[in-house]
Request: fold
Amino acid sequence: MLGFRRIDRYVIREVLGPIMLGFTLFTFVLLSNAFFLVAQQTISKNLGWDLTFRIFALELPRILILTLPMAVLLGSLIAVGRLSADHEWVALQGAGRGPSVLIRPLGTVGFLATVLCMVLYLEVAPRTNFAQRQMRGEIVLASNTASDLTPRTFYSQLDDVVLFIEDIRPGQVDGRLEGVFVHYTDRLERREELILARQGRIRPRSDGSGDLRVDLWDAAAYQLDTDDPEDYTIQRFEHQSRTQPAPAFVRAFQQPPNPGIYDMTTTELLEEIRVAPSERDATIRAIRVRAAVLEFHMRLALPTACLLFAMLAVPLGVRQARSGKGAGFAVSIGVFLVYYVVFMSTRNLAYDGRIPPALGAWSANLLLIPWFLYGTLSLRRPGGGLGLSPVFRLLSTIGRGLRRLAPTTRVEAREIEDEER
Reply:
């Protein structure tokens, strides 16, 4: 680690372990949620292992973009809290060292995390988002329509076909259906066909076209002319197999999707920012410009939070060390929750055009800067540090003011007077 002092290397070693611990913890929690969602989709759509693994792998970059800033904040708080709890921060102050002795190594770690998160957000995540959209089409084409059927309920999602299933027995390896009712309508030849089968099976064809193969066993077919209902025929057969064309909503997935704002690479996004103002329709032009500019700033603002979280951990960690080792985890969750709520709220305001897109993306980061500066300055005072108590004191003051404005009973009024004394 060329160019770093011994104290810098020491602090970096102290912070790397907790960061890896937090990264593993937060990633595991979010991946567990994604795992259940993917498992539910796999079971309901009867997907293969290859599609299941690809779905799970493509979820990973979006999760890492969130867990990396959280891990940096948690790891930095734990490391600074340990230094403060073991009175090493007091020793550094006694040696004439200020907060910069911790800000420099933590800022370095935060900067490296920012670069890594920025690479994920700028290059990796857009490609995986687009791959996910393509995979949705593959899932629709490869999914079994029989998994969408419900016993004793008419199914009319197929073109000119109505299905009715009497029962779906559990444990059927080959996916056979019991008591099948099928009604076909041929609009060109103006004929209708009604098939009653003892058993049936519906599977997608292996060519990936989305077409279905319908197999029927021990069935009777009634065919009639729509113009002349008296003209009908009856056929019986032991087994019949026919191909049902893919429905319209499935055929839409056969074409590759157009990339959206979230699917564009950085180069494509910059090109969209350049060409969006030339849109003729004023309403569409405003939406395209806002969405493109906002997405570009978001890809820069969220990774930058890694650097700000690492530096904010210095004043926060020094103060919260007195509350025990679990305080770092609680404070990191609280800080990130506040950050994420502000980030999402201002993003929505910017997307609606109420505030500039750049302000909507960077407002949460701008909130952290004065918080860090105030906490760093407070460290220069004896016993200084930045905790969450000022926030609680502010909320308590607001609550007392509201109660003073509208006391509902004499007991409350007496309690307020006692508090003021």
In short: The chain has a mean pLDDT of 79.
